[in-house]
Design goal:
Strand content: 25-35%
Shape: elongated
Order of helices and strands: EHEHHHEHEHEEEEEEHEEHEEEEE
Number of strands: 17
Keywords: Protease inhibitor, Serine protease inhibitor, Signal
Structural class: alpha+beta
Family: Belongs to the serpin family.
Helix content: 25-40%
Protein name: Serpin domain-containing protein
Radius of gyration: 21 Å
Number of helices: 8
Organism: Rhynchophorus ferrugineus
CATH class of the largest domain: Alpha Beta
Distance between the termini: 48 Å
GO cellular component, one term: extracellular space
Length: about 400
């Protein structure tokens, strides 16, 4: 008998609170997952842009309904030792993300279940209480109507930035569940760029070839460091709420992006802002807007999650009351970001510690982003301990090679 399907969609908010240890475990697990997934996605040439937390969150929700070797595969790939730690940790993460003042930041989960079916009580309780996920029945046999229902929810949660995520052909009579996570961000820079200073300039896509971009310019004091180990400069651009910032990692050489990625594989991204200082910096940043759609079936299999797609051995027996074998049929994420003089808008519908050697400069620094670079949008200060002040949660990660 053919196993019945679960469709995971990533687009890219407390009853039991997590301890600081559980929250830290989820943050660090997400940071490691971010590096691992980025390494797989970066094998393809061109721009890379995705929301790691959107993928990690919805897989953590599926983790609650897994058993056997499927549970073990999710434990290893999510880098979280137990499903209850993931649940409690995400409850705290969701609460903090949805209560950031001064900017628009929200993250939401949703489960669509086939009409006539019911979730097991424990799975429904944990996804409702810890992941704050509503459950809605839908008739997947009417695929066009079901897709419209799901897409309407996604559009609403991402302020219409992510559209037509689910296609009617993705749904059929074998579909039992659709698990969704949506994240949306819109914020103004703490210090806005002056549009009158924006000029057309060259952006080098390699050592010799360049394209013309609209380059913004701003002089201000920013957190900054020159990382000799990475052979790169690192800059932190804060938003109007300092709990959110964008980190830009710029290789020193025009063709240095590949070497930089190799070195970042050994860096804890949750601590990327350690050892920074705050000089006056002249920042030149290109305006850009990127939309992507990523089929994640292959990348997740490379990360050791082939088990969830295996029709013979996938075990999601703790999700539905009916004793049916469930298997993941498709994992897809759509993501959007726009960066301009005002700030940034983003949406997604899905350890070797390096210490920089820092020398305080006697003159201002020039940070000209005229070559391929890596950026990440992060949530700061999730933990209140002084020793964990710099621990950050990556929300959006990207490599910009062409604008």
């Amino acid at each position: 008998m053919t196993p019945l399907r679960i469709l995971f969609i990533f687009v890219l908010l407390h009853l039991t609170m997590a301890s600081k240890e559980e929250l830290q475990t989820v943050i660090q697990g997400n940071g490691l997952f971010t590096k691992q997934l980025y390494s797989v996605l970066a094998k393809k040439e061109g721009n890379v842009f995705f929301s790691p937390i959107s993928v990690h969150a919805v897989l953590s929700m599926a983790y609650q309904g897994a058993g056997g070797s499927t549970y073990e595969a999710l434990t290893n790939s999510l880098n979280v030792p137990d499903h209850s730690i993931a649940a409690k940790g995400y409850n705290s993460v969701l609460g903090q993300l949805n209560n950031v003042s001064g900017i628009e930041l929200s993250m939401a989960n949703k489960i669509y279940i086939k009409e006539g079916y019911e979730l097991q009580s424990e799975f429904q309780e944990v996804t409702a209480k810890q992941f704050l996920s509503a459950v809605e029945p839908v008739n997947f046999n009417e695929s066009e109507k079901a897709a419209k229902t799901i897409n309407t929810w996604v559009e609403e949660k991402t302020k219409e930035k992510i559209k037509d995520l689910v296609k009617a052909e993705d749904l059929n009579e074998d579909t039992r569940l659709v698990l969704l996570n949506a994240i949306y961000f819109k914020g103004n820079w703490a210090s806005k760029f002056d549009a009158a200073e924006t000029r057309p300039q060259k952006f080098y896509i390699n050592n010799n070839d360049s394209i013309e971009v609209q380059m913004m310019k701003k002089k201000s004091k920013y957190n900054y460091k020159e990382d000799r180990t990475l052979d790169a400069q690192v800059l932190e651009l804060p938003y109007s709420n300092p709990d959110i910032s964008m980190i830009i990692i710029l290789p020193n050489k025009r063709d240095g992006i590949v070497k930089l990625e190799e070195k970042l594989a050994n860096v804890d991204l949750t601590k990327i802002t350690e050892n920074m200082y705050k000089p006056e910096v002249i920042v030149s940043l290109p305006k850009f807007k990127i939309e992507t759609e990523i089929d994640l079936n292959g990348p997740l299999q490379e990360l050791g999650l082939g088990e969830i797609f295996n029709q013979k051995s996938a075990d999601f027996s703790k999700m539905l009351k009916t004793p049916e074998q469930l298997v993941v049929s498709k994992v897809v994420q759509k993501a959007f970001i726009e960066v301009n003089e005002e700030g940034a808008e983003a949406a997604a519908a899905t350890n070797v510690h390096i210490t920089a050697r820092i020398a305080i400069p006697k003159k201002r620094k020039d940070f000209k982003i005229d070559r391929p670079f890596i950026f990440l949008l992060k949530k700061n200060r999730l933990l209140k301990q002084k020793k964990s002040r710099k621990l950050a949660l990556p929300l959006i990660v990207g490599r910009i090679c062409h604008i």
